[in-house]
């Protein structure tokens, strides 16, 4: 069964039918039954979650929000599939194959880890559109690569952190040291230093590949944040998926500032106890990317190739849901100035630390 300890970003009023697959867990969020049944004539779209699964209050939940919107607006049946613990590429291939064979279109892999599997499965189902988030390395006529300028949003977070800190020390916590998460680190560090070279940035990663626990275990994030707090960091930015919730808890209890990631974490129900400490979040419009791909398939004009979301298209940004943030007029002004300069090409943000 689906992990019951997680709290989903959105609640759907209809009943949930669960079907266990050979690898991972697959569910339909429609009341009309198991959408994995072959031969269904109802339009269906599927997403396969990244490490941490649905309920991470971050990356995966943003993808689910896009699927949920498509269900509501486009009247498609949504199917979402959870990863298994220690899932291999072969497991991903089997899971994606089952989703495609059931007639789901598109089939979307949430995260770069799906690249090898999508590369294989897309060849077997040329009439099915496959989407992959955060990867542009695998290409085909039926593959849509949804990628983001994470470094740009992270730069704005660095500006906000440098303008907010009282101790001249801020922190960055990356879940797993991959090229993708290094983009978050690079942008954040550059934003801090461009704003105030005197501010110290403490940067660390929770795990190294092939260990991806740094995206799924909150206790790792909590311990890392506590270590940075002990070193006087008073603003901490964690790009660590579900593990980031542990960092948010530790920072909140210390009375310091968090910067969230991927989703507007101030508004995440599972983080409601800590929301006042979430100054802002670096957002990635994963929800719209998922929705737009599903709509393109429904319209008969499926997206393919690289689809890039940056500051210029509001594909990444900095959330302003916390009233405490909007009251910091000097911080908001500095962030808006940096945003304009990035869009205008006056600031080029690095993608590696």
What does this structure look like?
- It is a single chain.
- The radius of gyration is 20 Å and the shape is globular.
- It is built from ten helices and 14 strands.
- The protein has helices at 59-74, 89-101, 115-124, 150-164, 179-195, 218-230, 244-253, 286-298, 323-326, 329-343; strands at 17-20, 25-28, 44-48, 77-82, 107-109, 130-133, 143-148, 169-176, 200-207, 235-239, 257-262, 278-284, 305-309, 316-318.
- Strands 1-2-4-3-5-6-7-13 form an eight-stranded mixed β-sheet, with helices on both faces.
- It folds into two domains: 17-148 and 286-311, Rossmann fold, CATH 3.40.50; 150-284 and 322-343, Response regulator (Rossmann fold).
- It is 36% helix and 21% strand.
Would you give the CATH topology of the largest domain? Rossmann fold
Biggest sheet, open or closed, and with what strands and sense? 8 strands, mixed
* Residues in helices, as a percent range: 25-40%
Examine the secondary-structure arrangement and name the CATH architecture of the largest domain.
3-Layer(aba) Sandwich
The CATH superfamily name of the largest domain is Response regulator
End-to-end distance, in Å? 41 Å
Computed over alpha carbons, the radius of gyration is 20 Å
Write down the secondary-structure element order: EEEHEHEHEEHEHEHEHEEHEEHH
Low-pLDDT stretches are 1-25, 29-40
- Shape verdict: globular
Q: What average pLDDT do the residues reach?
A: 89
Instruction: Tell me the count of domains.
Output: 2
CATH top level assignment of the largest domain = Alpha Beta
Structural class: alpha/beta
In DSSP terms (H or I, runs of 4 or more residues), the helix count works out at: 10
Main sheet: strand order: 1-2-4-3-5-6-7-13
């Amino acid at each position: 069964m689906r992990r019951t300890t997680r709290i989903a970003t959105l609640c759907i009023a209809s009943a949930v039918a669960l079907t266990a697959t050979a690898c991972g867990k697959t569910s339909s969020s429609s009341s009309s039954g198991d959408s994995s049944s072959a031969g269904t004539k109802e339009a269906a779209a599927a997403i396969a979650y990244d490490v941490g699964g649905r309920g991470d209050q971050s990356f995966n939940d943003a993808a689910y929000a896009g699927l949920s919107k498509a269900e509501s607006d486009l009247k498609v049946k949504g199917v979402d599939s959870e990863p298994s613990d220690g899932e291999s590429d072969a497991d991903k291939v089997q899971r994606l194959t089952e989703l495609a064979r059931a007639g789901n279109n598109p089939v979307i892999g949430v995260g770069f880890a799906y690249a090898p599997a999508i590369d294989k499965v897309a060849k077997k189902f040329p009439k099915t559109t496959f989407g992959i988030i955060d990867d542009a390395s695998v290409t085909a006529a039926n593959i849509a690569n949804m990628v983001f300028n994470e470094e740009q949003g992270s730069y704005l977070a660095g500006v906000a952190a440098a303008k907010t800190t009282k101790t001249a020390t801020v922190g960055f916590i990356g879940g797993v040291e991959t090229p993708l998460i290094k983009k978050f680190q690079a942008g954040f560090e550059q934003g801090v230093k461009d704003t105030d070279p005197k501010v110290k940035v403490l940067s660390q990663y929770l795990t190294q590949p092939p260990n991806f626990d740094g995206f799924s275990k909150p206790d790792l994030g909590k311990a890392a944040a506590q270590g940075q707090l002990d070193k006087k960091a008073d603003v901490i930015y964690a790009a660590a998926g579900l593990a980031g919730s542990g960092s948010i808890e530790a920072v909140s209890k210390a009375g310091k500032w968090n910067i969230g990631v991927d989703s507007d974490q101030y508004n995440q129900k599972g983080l409601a106890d800590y929301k006042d400490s979430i100054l802002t979040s670096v957002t990635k419009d994963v929800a719209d990317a998922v929705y737009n791909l599903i709509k393109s398939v429904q319209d008969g004009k499926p997206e393919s190739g690289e689809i890039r979301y940056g500051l210029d298209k509001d594909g990444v940004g900095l959330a302003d849901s916390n009233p405490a943030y909007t009251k910091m007029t000097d911080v908001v002004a500095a962030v808006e100035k940096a945003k304009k300069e990035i869009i205008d090409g006056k600031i080029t943000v690095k993608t590696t630390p």
